[in-house]
Design goal:
Layout: E1 3-9, H1 16-28, E2 33-38, H2 52-63, E3 69-71, H3 85-95, E4 100-106, H4 107-114, H5 121-127, E5 129-133, H6 140-145, H7 148-151, E6 159-162, H8 172-180, H9 191-200
Parallel strand pairs: 1-2, 1-4, 2-3, 4-5, 5-6
């Protein structure tokens, strides 16, 4: 039985922090595989800044040298009304029925779930396990204990709380802004992705 982490994000573009985070979690949580899952451009709550094909190609370039890292475009092909994390995890549990799956997310998303901002939150929390990454200013244990939904499903294995140790939070937004204003974010993302962005004149 393998341990697999599902790591969803817009990856617009993928950054070195995304890769460092995935590597750190794979090491700390003894994961056999991390699946990079770019979100759908059909979502009504997010606006992508470049075409799906470019996000997808950059992810493949970024993870090509790590055998533990895989890319999956499942959500990219979903309609807006089908893109819910509960549905996504059900899909992967059907795809990997013998394996142990974890949804990887930041503590800010844990707060959103606790505040009732996620659809199918009860089903999602009741039927899945989570690796939660620390975010500055968020007390993860307090978030769980103050939420009836989270605390009543916390059996000691539901939430694996991870403090990465360093506050490396260079965002895709920052990188996009640097490109758009003629900045030089070269060493904030993989060299292959940097060259791809330059070649295709993305984020201009």
């Amino acid at each position: 039985m393998a341990k697999i982490g599902i790591y969803g994000s817009s990856f617009d573009p993928i950054t070195n922090v995304h890769l460092w985070t995935a590597s750190t979690i794979a090491h700390r949580c003894k994961l056999d595989e991390v699946i990079f899952l770019p979100c759908s451009s059909n979502r009504t709550d997010k606006t992508m800044n470049t075409a799906d094909e470019h996000r997808w190609e950059m992810i493949k370039l970024a993870i090509s040298d790590n055998p533990k890292f895989k890319a999956n475009d499942y959500e990219m092909h979903r309609n807006a009304w089908e893109v819910y994390t509960y549905y996504t995890m059900e899909h992967f549990k059907e795809k990997f029925p013998e394996d142990e799956l974890y949804f990887i997310m930041g503590a800010d998303l844990l707060v959103d779930i606790a505040n009732g901002e996620w659809k199918f939150a009860e089903e999602l929390i009741a039927n899945n396990k989570f690796i939660v990454m620390a975010r500055d200013g968020i007390d993860m244990l307090k978030t769980i204990s103050h939420s009836p939904l989270l605390r009543n499903h916390d059996d000691g294995t539901r939430f694996h709380l991870v403090d990465k140790g360093l506050a490396m939070e260079i965002s895709s937004t920052y990188i996009r802004e640097e490109f758009s204003r003629g900045g030089e974010p070269r060493y904030l993302l993989p060299e292959t992705c940097y060259e791809y962005i330059k070649q295709h004149s993305l984020y201009q």
